[in-house]
Amino acid sequence: MPPVSPELISPRSARVAAARRLAKRNFRGKDRLFLAEGPQAVREAAAHREGGQATLVELFATVEAAERYADIVGEARDTGARVHLASEDVIADISTTVTPQGLVGICRFLDTPFEEILAVRPKLVAVLAHVRDPGNAGTVLRCADAAGAEAVVLTDASVDLYNPKAVRASVGSLFHLPVAVGVPVEQAIERLKGAGVRILAADGAGDRDLDEELDKGTMGGPTAWVFGNEAWGLPEETRALADAVVRVPIHGKAESLNLATAAAVCLYASARAQRAHGGCRRVTRSE
């Protein structure tokens, strides 16, 4: 059998140019499409459907990647996505990573209206207020997914959900749980409170200690954690809206925790409390 050759070999082709422009936020918003890079993200995108519609609409793959990840490419084709075998130069041109993994997908936007999140009466939510670093945003989303949260909310002052670095840092979790975007932080907090959710602001200068809150048994109910900016945390007006401002205790000599680490600690503390006796979740998920 003769070797398979890529069909797309020129980074200057119109198809490649259309994909490449999705690295920029204004074009993503105009087309309502974003890039998902690497086998894990593409696999999750191929498996995701929204309202009966496939999320993955197009896939670019090198010949080597198509052979190595034949199952992913096959699933992409099964969803109706257009699959292009592309040269390494084309993949490098579309990709936003230094070392591309040979697969780049184009996906439909999949953010969820905030009203739909409220309607399910969520028990655990992560609210990203003024989070500007896409890597942190994606990592917090991944932590929320791992902790079993029902949703993530990115406020209107936070980074774009579909920034390639945020998508990459989520390691596929973007396709697992509802994410609302562009919600003013005041509205997010007010509406979550109205849905019976306790609001905890995570802040290193908080007057409540996370360990003490766990010991007092106050964290077993529906909870939304509000996480602030990487450099300056949460403004006073946002902290004032919360039911409590909680700090993660520093038992050693570290000056502080970074945003994503603190978020993981807080979300898992709530997840454990909610699954303990008397918590709002009686059964731990088995999957």
Structure description:
This protein is of the alpha/beta class. Helices cover 38% and strands 20% of the residues. The protein has 13 helices and 13 strands. The chain has helices at residues 14-20, 25-31, 39-47, 63-68, 70-78, 88-94, 114-119, 134-146, 164-169, 185-194, 210-216, 236-239, 259-275; strands at residues 33-37, 49-50, 53-54, 56-61, 82-85, 103-108, 124-128, 151-155, 179-183, 198-202, 208-209, 223-227, 244-247. It has a seven-stranded parallel beta sheet with strand order 9-8-7-12-10-13-11. It has a four-stranded mixed beta sheet with strand order 1-6-4-5. A two-stranded antiparallel ribbon has the order 2-3. Strand 7 (124-128), helix 8 (134-146) and strand 8 (151-155) form a beta-alpha-beta unit. It is elongated, with a radius of gyration of 21 Å.
Keywords:
elongated, alpha/beta, 287 residues
Characterize this entry briefly:
With 287 residues, the protein is α/β, with parallel strands linked by helices. Helices cover 38% and strands 20% of the residues.
Present the secondary structure layout:
Blueprint: H1 14-20, H2 25-31, E1 33-37, H3 39-47, E2 49-50, E3 53-54, E4 56-61, H4 63-68, H5 70-78, E5 82-85, H6 88-94, E6 103-108, H7 114-119, E7 124-128, H8 134-146, E8 151-155, H9 164-169, E9 179-183, H10 185-194, E10 198-202, E11 208-209, H11 210-216, E12 223-227, H12 236-239, E13 244-247, H13 259-275
Parallel strand pairs: 4-5, 7-8, 7-12, 8-9, 10-12, 10-13, 11-13
Antiparallel strand pairs: 1-6, 2-3, 4-6
**Radius of gyration using CA atoms only:** 21 Å
**Element string (H = helix, E = strand):** HHEHEEEHHEHEHEHEHEHEEHEHEH
How many individual β-strands?
13
Low-pLDDT runs: none
The largest beta-sheet arranges its strands as 9-8-7-12-10-13-11
* Shape field: elongated
Mean pLDDT, all residues = 92
Q: Biggest sheet, in brief?
A: 7 strands, parallel
How helix-rich are the residues, as a percent range?
25-40%
